């Protein structure tokens, strides 16, 4: 018995994670029931024995359990192996769903408790700004001028099929229902549906048997608009407007601009290294995007017609609304006194006509009669304004908010194009295309042989010419014809879908000013640049990726903005120029520490160059999913940007599987969008101490980082690019070869058909290290750099300085926080099993020993600086999440190693590929990726 008085004095500590554990147990039990029913008791017993042994091995650090686990996995038949891999993979998926639901649950509990605003919310950011003395006019100006743009990209690490995502979305909905007060009958029905959905998941093929096309990638991305963006982004605008009014009451009467958050996309327009992207995929992307948004408008306008049953016998209507009603094809006498309905029926007819004119082929509800299509989205917005203005003028203010205001915001945000589609191509292609055009026109026999200064002179001279290089009678290569067709398609898309449909052209591997001028000239050739009018339709955006490119970035932009023609074009762009920074390639090129430092330095130098030129800088951050590719929490990353680099302007990529992680749940999607706005608001407007002791201290920190970066760079480059046999080790000790065979995306894993790390894309590079649980791109070189620097005199003083850097410099704190997360997911014991796949024993031991030593050094250095001797001490929820996953990840990794060993043993013999083994490897890749929650 419990003493009641003692219980009152010491109330039991509530386990905030108890509902999460309950959900995971429930989903695990249902999965077990499905497994028993579908595969039989024997398979269920095998899976359960493996699970219990893995848990014992992890929790008790039991060596015997480890041996038992290995023996169990070795004894599995091929058929059992597939079932076990699928079981553990699906458990990882279900655990992700439960964790997402728990995040939502905890946030709602926080809001219901009336607690102080959470860090990362707009309310929290506004509170900080007000406390810092930031005026309301400054906040209003920010929202009037800002552009915050998440850009969805498709990359060859997305391992989820849309069918799987749809099933999991339904499971998430049913799990959320269980937090509601349900009757016993409703709870039973909910359980039955959950059981059925998990059974559906089990019976659904996890892998693609055919290569994913660009069209598939487009449709996959558009599913997140229907789940999250179409409803949650307008809703976020409403929330932000209310928060501003609460914190700055003098702004309550002012509406906030509807365009400071806009969506972007690369899917269908990014052809760098992807031969499957062309003019046709761009046009298809816009057709599908327009169809998605117009379907949304049609549904909402239809619903408004049902809701706004307002009669002029009861209340008046504005003349403009009456005119809109009179123009409607609806002449029913039953609605003669219902002008809103008649107006909406007319608007529906116009939208249906618009959808057909923009490529939609399936309008679900037929319109009442014929109407002309809208000329553009602005005309649709104007009609919505007529409805809203009439309601407000005639006692209908309450009727605007529920749906009409949302449609108004959506129309302003998404237009008829939904998202701005970026074009991207590598500079080498532009050079080849222009070389061919110059030669065909008799202007320059071999453009590629010219020096940089000669190229710039020739390009500027040609830009001043009224005539074109292109002739319809010239015989051009397939590459040149395709590139010109893409730019012509861009011009047509802008005319059909609006100017925001395409407005950016990104140049990969920008190394010189001529790389930028070449794209200007190609736009001139296709009508996107009109030099005489100084009108440029697609902003030319350099992408600086490698370490040398980042170091040259400021100098190139200085030269670029000094050109008279460019100055005038930038003026027409609102005195704004965008620069994209590549995180993935710089990391693969120089390692984690150096990549982050060179990005930071490049930003500081760009800020100065742009300030001197009087041009506003917008940075486009090409961040990946994992820390090794520039990933990690976006909120902290934005706040850690150098002063002057945000200023209300930021674009950043959301890549591959991270899109699903952030936006496959509407509520979590809303939270992630709010984090972007809150971080941008705070980073842009919070005062930065820039003088005195603080500035002197920062300069000292930066000097230390420069030294550490140089040392880390040498350590990383020495291992990856200078160690004999490292390439062979990498291709043997990771599943890179098997990853390349997966039907993950439309883009090849390597830029060239070689076995060189230099030619491998950064994404599968990071993906492979994640699969073998080393995650080397996220930490290697840090330990060597710190150790060498600290040992060169005054060690204690240097350690104290590093500790001060961690406490007082957001850049360094974020760097270490991200590395801490990577190290929490790293497992050398698992990685050693993959190293066993390297046939050359001497090579295996030599390289793995180096990696292990650096890992140990890195851990010691991290603990010395932060004072935390456990990973993720500052984020216990994430730490528990990762630890809980290991028991289910370990068997997958062990199985993957065994399957790769069997597969490679057979693959050397002609015609001897075991398809079951092959499929098992791919299933394990899916499961590990889901378990780690960042694959690339």
UniProtKB/TrEMBL annotation:
GO terms for cellular component: cytosol. GO terms for molecular function: magnesium ion binding; phosphoenolpyruvate carboxylase activity. It catalyses: oxaloacetate + phosphate = phosphoenolpyruvate + hydrogencarbonate. Gene3D superfamilies: Phosphoenolpyruvate/pyruvate domain (1.20.1440.90). Keywords: Carbon dioxide fixation, Lyase, Magnesium, Pyruvate. One of its GO terms (biological process) is oxaloacetate metabolic process. Its EC number is 4.1.1.31. Its cofactor is Mg(2+). PROSITE patterns: PEPCASE_1, PEPCASE_2. The keyword Nucleus does not apply. The keyword Lyase applies. The active site is at 155, 588. Homotetramer. Forms oxaloacetate, a four-carbon dicarboxylic acid source for the tricarboxylic acid cycle. HAMAP family: PEPcase_type1. Belongs to the PEPCase type 1 family. This is Phosphoenolpyruvate carboxylase. The gene is ppc.
């Amino acid at each position: 018995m419990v003493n009641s008085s003692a219980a009152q004095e010491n109330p039991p500590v509530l386990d905030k994670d108890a509902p999460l554990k309950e959900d995971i147990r429930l989903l695990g039990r249902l999965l077990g029931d499905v497994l028993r029913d579908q595969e039989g008791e024997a398979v269920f017993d095998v899976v359960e024995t493996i699970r219990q042994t893995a848990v014992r091995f992890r929790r008790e650090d039991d060596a015997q359990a480890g041996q038992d686990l290995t023996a169990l996995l070795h004894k599995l038949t091929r058929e059992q192996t597939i079932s076990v891999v699928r079981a553990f993979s699906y458990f990882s998926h279900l655990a992700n769903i439960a964790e997402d639901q728990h995040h939502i649950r905890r946030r709602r509990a926080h809001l219901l408790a009336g607690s102080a605003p959470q860090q990362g919310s707009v309310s929290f950011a506004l509170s900080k700004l007000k406390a810092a003395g930031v005026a309301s006019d400054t906040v209003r100006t920010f929202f009037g001028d800002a552009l915050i743009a998440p850009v969805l990209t498709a990359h060859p690490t997305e391992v989820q099929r849309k069918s799987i995502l749809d099933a999991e979305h339904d499971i998430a909905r049913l799990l959320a229902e269980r937090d509601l007060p349900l009757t016993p009958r409703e709870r039973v029905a909910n359980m039955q549906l959950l059981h059925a959905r998990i059974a559906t998941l089990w019976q659904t093929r996890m892998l693609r048997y055919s290569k994913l096309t660009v069209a598939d990638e487009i449709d996959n991305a558009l599913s997140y608009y229907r789940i999250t963006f179409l409803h949650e982004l307008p809703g976020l605008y409403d929330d932000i407007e209310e928060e501003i009014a609460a914190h700055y009451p003098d702004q309550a009467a002012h509406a906030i601009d509807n365009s400071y958050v806009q969506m972007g996309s690369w899917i269908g327009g990014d052809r760098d290294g992807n031969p499957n992207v062309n003019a046709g995929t761009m046009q298809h992307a816009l057709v599908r995007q327009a169809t998605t948004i117009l379907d949304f408008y049609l549904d909402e306008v239809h619903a408004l017609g049902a809701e706004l049953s307002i009669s002029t016998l009861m209340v008046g209507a504005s003349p403009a609304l009456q005119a809109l009603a009179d123009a409607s094809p609806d002449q029913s006498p039953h609605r003669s006194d219902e002008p809103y309905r008649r107006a909406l029926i007319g608007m529906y007819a116009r939208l249906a006509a618009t959808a057909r004119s923009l490529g939609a082929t399936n309008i679900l509800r037929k319109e009442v009669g014929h109407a002309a299509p809208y000329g553009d989205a602005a005309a649709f917005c104007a009609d919505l304004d007529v409805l809203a203005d009439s309601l407000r003028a005639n006692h209908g203010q309450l009727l605007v908010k529920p749906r009409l205001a949302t449609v108004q915001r959506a129309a302003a945000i998404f237009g008829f194009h939904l998202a701005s589609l970026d074009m991207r191509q590598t500079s080498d292609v532009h050079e080849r295309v222009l070389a061919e055009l110059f030669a065909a026109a008799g202007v320059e026999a071999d453009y590629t042989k010219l020096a940089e200064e000669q190229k710039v002179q020739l390009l500027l001279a040609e830009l001043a010419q009224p005539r074109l290089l292109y002739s319809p009678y010239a015989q051009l290569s397939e590459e040149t014809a395709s590139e010109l067709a893409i730019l012509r398609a861009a011009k047509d898309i802008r005319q059909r879908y609006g100017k925001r449909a395409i407005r950016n052209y990104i140049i990969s591997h920008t190394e010189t000013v001529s790389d930028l001028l070449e794209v200007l000239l190609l736009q001139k050739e296709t009508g996107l640049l009109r030099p005489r009018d100084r009108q440029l339709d697609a902003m030319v955006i350099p992408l600086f990726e490698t370490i040398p490119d980042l170091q040259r970035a400021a100098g190139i932009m200085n030269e670029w903005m000094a050109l008279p023609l460019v100055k005038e074009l930038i003026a027409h762009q609102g005195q704004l120029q965008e620069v994209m920074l590549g995180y993935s390639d710089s990391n693969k090129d120089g390692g984690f520490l150096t990549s982050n430092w060179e990005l930071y330095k490049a930003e500081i130098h760009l800020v100065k160059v742009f300030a001197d030129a009087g041009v506003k800088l917008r940075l486009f951050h090409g961040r990946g999913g994992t820390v090794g590719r520039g990933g990690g929490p976006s909120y902290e990353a934005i706040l850690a940007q150098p002063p002057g680099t945000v200023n209300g302007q930021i674009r950043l990529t959301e890549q591959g599987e991270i899109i699903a992680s952030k936006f496959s749940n509407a509520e979590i999607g809303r939270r992630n969008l709010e984090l972007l706005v809150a971080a941008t608001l705070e980073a842009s407007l919070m005062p930065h101490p820039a003088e005195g002791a603080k500035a002197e201290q920062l300069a000292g920190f930066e000097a230390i980082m420069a030294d550490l970066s140089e040392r880390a760079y040498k350590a990383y480059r020495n291992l990856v690019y200078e160690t004999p046999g490292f390439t062979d080790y990498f291709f043997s000790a990771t599943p890179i070869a098997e990853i390349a065979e997966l039907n993950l995306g439309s883009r090849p894993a390597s830029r060239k058909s070689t076995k060189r790390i230099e030619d491998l894309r950064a994404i599968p590079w990071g993906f492979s290290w994640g699969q073998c649980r080393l995650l080397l791109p996220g930490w290697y070189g840090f330990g060597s750099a710190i150790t060498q620097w600290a040992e060169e005199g005054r060690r204690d003083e240097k350690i104290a300085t590093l500790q001060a850097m961690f406490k007082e410099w957001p850049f360094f704190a974020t760097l270490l926080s991200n590395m801490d997360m990577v190290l929490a997911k790293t497992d050398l014991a698992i990685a050693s099993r993959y190293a066993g796949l390297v046939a050359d024993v001497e090579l295996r031991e030599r390289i793995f020993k180096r990696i292990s030593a650096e890992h140990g050094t890195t851990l010691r250095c991290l603990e010395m600086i932060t004072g935390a001797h456990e990973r993720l001490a500052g984020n216990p929820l994430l730490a528990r999440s990762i630890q809980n996953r290991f028991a289910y990840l370990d068997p997958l990794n062990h199985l993957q190693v065994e399957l790769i060993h069997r597969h490679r043993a057979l693959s050397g013999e002609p015609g001897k590929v075991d398809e079951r083994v092959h499929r098992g490897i791919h299933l394990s890749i899916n499961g590990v990726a889901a378990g780690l929650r960042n694959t690339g």
